[in-house]
Amino acid sequence: MLSGKHILLIVGGGIAAYKALDLIRRLRERGAEVTPVLTRAGGEFVTPLSVSALAGRKVFSDLWDLTDEAEMGHIQLSRAADLVVVAPCTADLMAKMAGGHADDLASTLLMATDKRVLIAPAMNVRMWEHPATRRNLATLTGDGVLAVGPNAGDMACGEFGPGRMAEPLEIVAAIDAALDGGPLAGRHVLVTSGPTHEPIDPVRYIANRSSGAQGTALARALADLGARVTFVTGPASVPPPQGVDVVAVESAAEMLAAVEGALPADAAVFAAAVADWRVAGASAQKIKKGAGGLPRLELAENPDILATVAQRTEGRPRLVVGFAAETETVVAHATAKRARKGCDWIVANDVSPGTGIMGGAENAVTLITADGAEDWPRASKAEVAARLAARIAEALG
Ligand code: C5P
What we know:
Layout: E1 6-11, H1 17-29, E2 33-38, H2 48-55, H3 66-71, H4 74-79, E3 83-89, H5 91-99, H6 105-112, E4 117-121, H7 125-129, H8 131-142, E5 146-147, E6 151-154, E7 160-164, H9 168-179, E8 188-193, E9 198-199, E10 205-206, H10 213-224, E11 228-233, E12 245-248, H11 252-262, E13 267-270, E14 277-279, E15 299-301, H12 305-310, E16 319-326, H13 330-341, E17 345-350, E18 362-363, E19 365-369, E20 372-375, E21 379-380, H14 381-396
Helix pairs in contact: 1-2, 1-9, 5-8, 10-14
This protein binds cytidine-5'-monophosphate.
């Protein structure tokens, strides 16, 4: 399964670095190409010579090596791979990744890559259990970084507990799963997310308070299950996830064009908070205060992107899912919306100010399908996304 796949392997500075040598061997046996990067600390545990001999190619270690920058810049190096693997991933590397540092080649590559990242943490058990490492792991998984291990067992430092790097074959299995696996492998899923901005003139717009958090979490969860995700996003306040094709748009009209351009898809999920109205005949020049009195904004109705796609007679995705943000009689409104728009499912939520859902970290949804309404317990947006992604995978079969 790994034949022809290109792995960028970052070897961090831990005693488990010796296992990275075996990992390189196992990957190459399976037909993968491995481009090794050795951190300064990693170089204290294994030599560049053994790493490059096993990888069959040059080992990169220095950001300031101008020859490398001339031949292959760090941006290109970070993107030429199918997957970036960090093994061993030390507590320090995890902290750097979670904090967005870029002060050496490894951390810069991890910041610059547009590919998925898999870490194999390895550290002393106390370091693994330290609240700072817990926080960093939560940040990293929230960012879509995959992790394998650590395992529990005797450690080189004489202590016992979780902290040992996963074995090379476990890492190979995780790499396999990250590259090809998952129930949505081979499926294309389209996700809309975020608010839209409807121009009044070149500097002003009408917007809404959507953060894009739920759509972003969903796109990430779908990609985690192996889907190819096209993520059509309005100007959201959270960054898009890694490992998806991002199409950034501003207005509802642009969003509709991007959605139609991204079809065909096996499933489409419309999590965006699309403005219902735009300003009719937005001004090409900045509107001036002045003699004419107050400007009058005339509104025009925006296209309903969800309904347009759900009602396509040709090329309709097999599963079309809409969202319904309501503030009262949620299920009744959402059930009617499902019928009116012609979509298969509606994910309904109560966004009354007291719920803290709009712009918050949690969500409590009701899934409305042809079979009725299902209440899901309140959970983080990431958990709701994972559950919805699993249901989508089940539905696509
Ligand atoms: O009608 P309402 O805006 O409540 O419907 C919400 C659902 O419809 C969401 O899935 C949203 O993404 C989608 N929608 C759309 N285009 C619009 C308005 C809403 O795709 N113009």
